[in-house]
From TrEMBL:
Keyword Transmembrane appears in the UniProt entry: yes
PROSITE patterns named in the record: MFS
Intracellular or extracellular location(s): Cell membrane
Major facilitator superfamily (MFS) profile domain sequence ranges: 23-473
Pfam entry (one): MFS_1
Principal subcellular localisation of the protein: membrane
Keywords of this entry: Membrane, Transmembrane, Transmembrane helix
Gene3D superfamilies found in the cross-reference section: MFS general substrate transporter like domains
Organism: Pseudonocardia zijingensis
Name under which the protein is recorded: MFS transporter
Residue ranges crossing the lipid bilayer per the database entry: 23-47, 59-79, 91-113, 119-135, 147-165, 177-194, 206-227, 233-257, 277-297, 309-335, 347-367, 373-398, 410-433, 445-468
Bilayer topology annotation: Multi-pass membrane protein
């Protein structure tokens, strides 16, 4: 990459020296953290939104669901644009959309405008892969790997940062105050990107496959809709199953379209590489388990004592339970790049999945006091942090530098679907454990969900070990 022009920050960013390069790393990490935290704002505010806008809880749930939907749909398109010559413009325009959406959530407008604003905020979730592409292009190889791992980690632990802050602001100033935080930090992220993000290297080209984008968007909308609408599965199983079949057909059609396209949205042939396919399978199943435990712990902590278990915590105090998750996730993210010099990435994935499974086991066996919940969340955070930090190394080891954003955007979509299914599965298990006339599920339902999570992490571990075995057999 020597001699590339990156518009003002060019040579310094490439060589890793100068003030521009020193500012680039914190800028990339900050932007990834902001879009993740803003995307998670909907989770702790659902009840407050329902009360403030006089809508049902199911309707308020869409302030979170619509963000995941728009993020999943926008991510592959942004990934392809990020592989081309206009990556900087793509990042700035996307952040401008996020800032506009943040303004809509703050202004005194009807509920429909709040949903529109949350959808616009969700578009920013696709920027994580672009931040990785910038790091890989404009940092020395010995430094870019650690930065990419850190970006991957903060995109996860941003949930633990945004949840308690949003809950506290809601208690102090109402739901608009919480969304106001989103407006402030997204505006700061836009300014940071304008000052720090360099232009893409010369010689790149990117054409968006519009038919492929439309078909993929339709399929993802159906998949995430089905994951979010738990009542549809319990009350209208035939309709839900039919829509699931339609979604699978659309995904098959999309694969055919991509294979025939000269400028595919996603290079399906590259995604079929055993290392990439295995990594995405591990991400999908692992994502189900990881988000399942997040769903269980926060709900358990807020359950009142009258149910026979739980701690009756407020939304803000329950959010503090996520602090060990974020702190130890960050610690694991900083340790993993050092371990990668001695341990292969697939082995690190397997080890991290075992740690996450340990978090499930702790929650299943001991949750009678808050200290035990804090320990379980800390173990989960350490495992998730290590998993997230090791995952990019598995994929990028067989991915051309120019395809970094596109390859990682696919992994993000897979992760998003896994998270959504994890949340839905947790809800279905707890709903099944709620007896007639009861508001809260039996305590045993949480144990059942935890055991299912352990099973998911066992599958993730075996998949990762299979990747490690394949890599060992291919290495002379």
């Amino acid at each position: 990459m020597t001699g590339e022009s990156v518009g003002g920050a060019g040579e310094n960013a490439v060589s890793g020296t100068g003030s521009e390069a020193r500012l680039l790393v914190p800028a990339l990490v900050f932007i990834a953290l902001v879009v993740a935290a803003v995307g998670s704002l909907g989770a702790p505010l659902i009840t407050s939104v329902a009360t403030s806008f006089d809508v049902s809880l199911d309707s308020a749930q869409w302030t979170l669901t619509v963000t995941l939907l728009s993020g999943a749909v926008a991510t592959p398109v942004l990934g392809r644009l990020g592989a081309g010559p206009h990556r900087r413009a793509t990042i700035l325009v996307t952040l401008a959309v996020v800032v506009t959406g943040s303004a809509l959530t703050v202004l005194p407008l009807p509920f429909a405008w709040l949903l529109a604003g949350r959808a616009a905020q969700g578009v920013g979730l696709g920027l994580t892969a672009l931040m990785m592409g910038v790091a890989r292009d404009h940092l020395p190889a010995e430094r870019s790997g650690g930065v990419i791992a850190l970006i991957s980690v903060v995109s996860i632990i941003g949930v633990g940062v945004g949840y308690p802050l949003a809950a506290l602001l809601t208690e102090l100033g109402g739901v608009r105050a919480a969304y106001g935080l989103g407006l402030v930090v997204t505006a700061a992220a836009l300014l940071t990107a304008w000052r720090s993000v360099p232009h893409a290297p010369e010689g790149r080209s990117a054409h968006v496959d519009v038919p492929g984008a439309v078909v993929l968007a339709a399929a993802l909308l159906l998949v995430l809709f089905l994951a979010g609408e738990r009542d549809l599965w319990s009350r209208h199983l035939a309709v839900a199953a039919g829509l699931a079949v339609v979604a699978m057909v659309l995904l098959c059609v999309w694969v055919v379209v991509e294979l025939r396209s000269t400028t595919p949205l996603v290079d399906v042939r590259a995604v079929r590489h055993p290392a990439v396919a295995g990594a995405n399978v591990a991400t999908f199943v692992g994502g189900i388990g990881m988000y399942l435990l997040l769903t269980l712990v926060t709900r358990y902590a807020q359950t009142p004592h009258d149910a026979g278990y739980g701690f009756g915590l407020t939304t803000f105090v329950a959010g503090l339970v996520l602090i060990p998750f974020s702190v130890l996730g960050f610690v694991a993210g900083k340790l993993t790049p050092r371990l990668r010099t001695r341990i292969a990435d697939p082995v690190l994935l397997a080890g991290s999945a075992v740690v996450v499974g340990g978090g499930f086991a702790l929650f299943a066996a001991a949750r009678s006091n808050l200290a035990e919940l804090f320990v379980a969340m800390g173990v989960l955070g350490f495992g998730v942090g290590g998993f997230s930090a090791a995952m990019p190394g598995v994929i990028l080891a067989v991915t051309p530098k120019s395809e970094t954003s596109s390859a990682m955007s696919v992994n993000y979509v897979v992760r998003s679907v896994g998270y959504s299914l994890g949340s839905a599965i947790g809800g279905l298990i707890l709903a099944a454990g709620t007896g007639p006339g009861r508001l809260f599920p039996d305590d045993s339902a949480y144990t059942t969900a935890a055991l299912i999570g352990i099973g998911a992490m066992a599958i993730t571990t075996l998949t990762s070990l299979a990747l490690a075995s394949r890599r060992s057999s291919e290495t002379p």
